[in-house]
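Input/output pair, single chain:
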Amino acid sequence: MVTPTRVVIALCLVAPFVAMLWVGSYAKTDPQFIGIPFFYWYQMLWVLLSTVLTMTAYKLWQRDQRARSASKGGASR
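Output:
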C-alpha cells in the first residue's frame, strides 16, 4: 500500500542516486570550497547527505511498521 510516509522514504533513498547519476550538474571546478574543486566537494557532501537521508528513511520505516502492527493488533481485538 502506498502511503505518504512510504513516498517520503522512497524519495530519501532515490535522491542520492539521482544526484550522483546526473554528472553534468557537477562536472565543473567552480565554485571551489577551501581550495577543493566543486566536483570533489559536491560528491563528499552527498556522502553526508546520503547518510542523513538513509537514517531518516530507516526511522520513518520503523515508525510506519510500528503503526501498521498497532493497527492490525487493534483491529483483531
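The longest helix spans residues 38-75. The mean pLDDT is 91.
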